[in-house]
Amino acid sequence: MIDCGALGAGNRISAVPFDLTFSLLPSTLAAFWPMRHVLSALVQNVPGVLAHVSGMLASRAYNIHSLAVGETEDPEFSRMTFVVVGDDGILEQVRKQLEKIVTVVRVDDVSSKDHVERDLMLIKVKADKGDRPEIRELSRIFRGRIVDVSPTEMMIELSGQEKKVQAFIDMMRPFGIIELCRTGRIAMVRSVNRPLTGQPDEVSNAGA
């Protein structure tokens, strides 16, 4: 399943921000591969780099749970975040294959460091008049945001750790999910000079 936003002129990754979810492993098989590694690849922002990287991964049948792509602070580069399912040997194979690609500048194993992960989702659910109060309350509990409403439907934006997003999806199923779009996991290594204790409330509550 591939979900992606709009690409800009010339198919440059950086022309318009977009996210892509690239799922190769059925969820029923994921239980047999409990180890999930997060790789971050800095790539040159040139036409064809996404097709080249995703084609390499698919041709070698690596178990890639998700792939998210987007701009970095430098418009010359984009960042690809992979969730690789498998043992350390599989992780090393994926890393080496990525490093062989000319347009790949650097590959980091984010999961081996102290880091923050997030997954962003938009979900559209059936919402008749009687169900709306409960949907609103669940959205509030999960710190989601209602971004669109119609006479029969509601659209909710939610971000957080993957397990939180999945839990919210499960809570919405009884109402009837009409459409669902997820970015896949993104990650960033924490600051090395951050305080060990006394984090402000907005930081300590951010992952809830």
From TrEMBL:
InterPro entries from the UniProt entry: Acetalactate_synth_ssu, Acetolactate_synth/TF_NikR_C, Acetolactate_synth_ssu_C, ACT-like_dom_sf, ACT_dom, AHAS_ACT, AHAS_small-like_ACT
PROSITE patterns: ACT (PS51671)
Pathway participation: Amino-acid biosynthesis; L-valine biosynthesis; L-valine from pyruvate: step 1/4; Amino-acid biosynthesis; L-isoleucine biosynthesis; L-isoleucine from 2-oxobutanoate: step 1/4
GO biological process, one term: L-valine biosynthetic process
UniProt EC number: 2.2.1.6
Keywords: Amino-acid biosynthesis, Branched-chain amino acid biosynthesis, Transferase
Gene Ontology CC: cytosol
Catalytic activity: 2 pyruvate + H(+) = (2S)-2-acetolactate + CO2
SUPFAM superfamilies attached to this UniProt entry: ACT-like (SSF55021)
Domain of life, per lineage: Bacteria
ACT domain ranges (all copies): 38-112
GO MF annotation terms: acetolactate synthase activity; acetolactate synthase regulator activity
Record's subunit section: Dimer of large and small chains.
Family of the protein in this entry: Belongs to the acetolactate synthase small subunit family.
Protein name: acetolactate synthase
Organism: Botrimarina hoheduenensis
